[in-house]
Amino acid sequence: MKVLGLIAEYNPFHLGHKYHLEKSKQITNSNYSIVVMSGSFVQRGEPSFIDKWTKAKMAIDNGIDLVIELPFMFSVQSAELFALGSIKLLHSLNIVDYIAFGNELGSLDDLKKVAKILIEEPPYFKQQLQEYLNKGHSFPMARSNALKDFSNQYKDQMKTSKDIQNILKMSNNILAIEYLKALISLNSNIEPIAIKRIGSLYGDEDLSNTIASATGIRNSILNNGINSIKEYVPTETFRHLVNYIDKYEQFNTLDNYRQIIHYLLQIDDKKYLTDIMDIEPGLENRIVAKSTKYKDIDYLVQSITTKRYPKTRIQRILVHLMANLKKSLFNELSTHYPSYIRVLGMNRNGFKLVNKIKENCNLPIITKFADYKQYNNIHLHKIISLDKISTDLYFTGLNNTKPFIDMDYYTTPYIVKK
Length: 418
Description:
Layout: E1 3-8, H1 15-28, E2 32-38, E3 41-42, E4 46-47, H2 52-61, E5 66-70, H3 72-75, H4 79-92, E6 98-103, H5 109-120, H6 123-134, H7 139-153, H8 164-167, H9 171-185, E7 191-196, H10 214-224, H11 235-248, H12 258-267, H13 270-273, H14 283-291, H15 297-304, H16 311-323, H17 327-334, E8 341-346, H18 348-360, E9 365-366, H19 378-396, H20 407-410, E10 414-415
Parallel strand pairs: 1-2, 1-6, 2-5, 6-7, 8-9, 8-10
Antiparallel strand pairs: 3-4, 5-8
Helix pairs in contact: 2-11, 4-9, 5-9, 6-7
């Protein structure tokens, strides 16, 4: 049994994801696949375009064997924390042989060198990083500049085939570096594999390429209707998108939460906001001040965004605010993570994987949501309660004629037995 691990959002599952899965299985000669997938909200600080069970259905019907939910407390975080939470979960299963992730380079040599420096943090690098932060740069930009300076100063230690800053401009490269850092820090035996990204770049907004980005697909659905993306997704994905919109009537976006966000920003004391995850001292003043001027969430986010505080970070803060995810709570729970394995979908091979996990891992495997109550573990309860909050919040954002409440209790994993 060779097991391939993947980390994804599948928002939605498209032809690029299909290529990545098939290429990864071919290169690693794996006959089983597990994906750790974000649930109701995604890394860039937005609600998932479709609900997590629809995403799980897409994944299983397109060839994934087992879908495990990445808990909310890690799914809406910086690239570093998102990667750490995902890798920790895969590592804890004790059955994964490979992890394959896409990047713009198609190799890991340069990324491993960068990851090594970021873990070791040599004095010159730390000095330059702090200087750029003091100048008001965002952390990713400050880190990129500091790495560039370090590579120029210590060419023998940091010789890469491509310019450091060009490497770090690409979102998939950044995530790949964070995955490598997490693997190293955990001393994991999981072997990383790089798959070169093909087609559109991450975040491309148009559909000029057959393998389009998820961003382009979502934008086209919102602007031109669901039929506009039929040739850019697998047949199984399109079928589940149609079923989703028939059932829920609306795809989800952050602007659907404008009333909730503005209400919370008006009633909460600024001192309360300072403990919300990802907020630095002083940023709460800017957020509250701008919220009195802009109702539209896109305009609000853009008005708060600065060189130091990128758009995605502001969006994540707004999601954390709605879910009441505080720094103190995150710090408490992260030392007890992972506490469980939440199954969202599986096929026949997935059943075999679950049995193998039971043999090699002591973590509770939760298929029926209510079963978490039988475990006398306060940290498990707190982490999974955040998942429930995020699910309830997800469906609150949909302007349905029918309310959807407690969906974690009422929705079972997607199981294909053939």
